[in-house]
Amino acid sequence: MKLKKLMLSLVSGALACTMFAGCGSGSSSESDSSQAADTVTDAQTEKKEETAEMVDVKLLGRTYLADDGKIWLGLSGTGVDFEYTGDKLSLFMIGNPTGRDNGSRVGVYVDGERVKDMIVTGDAEIFDIDGKGSTPVNVKIVKLSECPQSCCGIVKINPNGGTVKAAADKPHKIEIIGDSITCGYGVDENDPLSHFTTPTEDCTKSYSIKTAELLNADYSLVSFSGYGIVSGYTESGNKVADSLVPLYYEKYGFTYGAGFGAKKPQDMDWDFSKFVPDAVVINLGTNDSTYAKNDERREEYKQGYISFLKTIRSKNPNARIFCTLGIMGTSLNKTMHEAAEAYTAETGDNNISVFDFPEQNGNADGLAADYHPSEKTHTKSAEMLAEFIKKEMGW
Q1: Are 3 and 58 in contact (CB under 8 A)?
Q2: How many CB atoms are located within 10 Å of the residue 332 CB?
């Protein structure tokens, strides 16, 4: 989606490429962050005069533009996409001070190549991005890690005399709803005995964004590690009723710590008119399977799935819905099929398809943290899913 009137503050002088380690309380307010931003900017450059320029940028997924002009990134894959013409662009970001293992991992891309891979944890971090003078370059700033552990914000984008123009929309749009697999959990860790940290999470290496790229589609991800439809991941077998994607599907996300300044993404309603997908993919059930181990609980999963399908349809009346499952286990695939069939029988809605992923082969393709799929598995899964969607959609 394009944002037509984003106020980007332009400060005189060049901003040095310096990372500040300052951290505040996890409950820092948006006004506190603004004060920190002003302090650091003054320290970096003699600010004789500030001006503002109206520019176009493209927001990725459920990225939030605050009234004060900050751009907040919560869910995996959120960010901005634009064309930059100039020599050096300065990026000023703030993050939730949650510690390195939970900080926001952010990738910066120039013409499709990742040029920076950052963990944004502090109150003030400034990065420079090289342009190519009079030759425009595509710049993407993408949050690679998920929302529950941390959010981050873009405070200022300084073109330093250059120009910024929104990237063009792609011919298709796809929303992907899921759990840790969709987030790219631990994909940069090849030891299955290792555990979660945001520095090893990368949604761009997940089947989710890989599928969108293969389809030449703009994407929006709604995904949380450990979450399900009727129960989150459980080791005891007892239901985890607060880790459910349907609770937050209509929101900007969910975070345990500081959110979008003074606001929490789970308290903010998402406007579904901002991103209208042609296709919606659901990949949920892996965590439910740790709970739904008998007929009664599988029926509960089925009914919960049907209810969630109704919610998704109400928000996306024209999208084709794809029900998928299986990368980390297929024990609920049959129940997922039953849920889709029962939904169609009840509602008459035939604009729905079911796709079974083959279960990952760790011996052949490797494993990531906590036995999650490797990038090789994600790539294979994306190729199969994209091919299926192309056929069903006629793309």
Answers
A1: yes
A2: 26
- Two structure tokens written together for 291: 């709970």
H or E element that contains 93: strand 79-95
305: three-class secondary structure by DSSP: helix
- At 270-321, the pLDDT tens digits run 999 999 999 999 999 999 999 999 999 999 999 999 999 999 999 999 999 9
Phi/psi-derived region of residue 16, left when phi > 0, alpha when psi is between -120 and 50, beta in every other case: beta
In 10 A of CB 9, how many CB atoms?
A: 16
Residue finishing a domain among 166, 183, 206 = 166
Cα-based angle 377, 378, 381 (whole degrees, multiple of 5): 85
Contact 357, 325 (CB under 8 A): yes
Decide: residue 144, CB within 10 A, 0-12 exposed, 13-18 middle, 19+ buried: buried
Are 196 and 304 part of one and the same domain? Answer: yes
| Integer Cα distance of 51 and 137 in angstroms | 24
DSSP state of 125: E
User: Do residues 55 and 81 touch, judged by C-beta distance below 8 A?
Assistant: no
Indicate the pTM of the whole model: 0.87
* Total of domains in the chain: 2
* Residue 159 and residue 191 in one domain: no
What per-residue string of b and e applies to 227-262 under the rule 16 or more CB within 10 Å gives b?
bbbbbbbbeeeebbeebbbbebeebbbbbeebbbbe
Q: Which of 151, 166, 181 is the last residue of a domain?
A: 166
The string of DSSP letters for 111-168 reads TTEEEEEEEE-SS-EEEEEEEEEEEEEEEEEEE-S-TTT--EEEEEEE-TT-EEEEPP
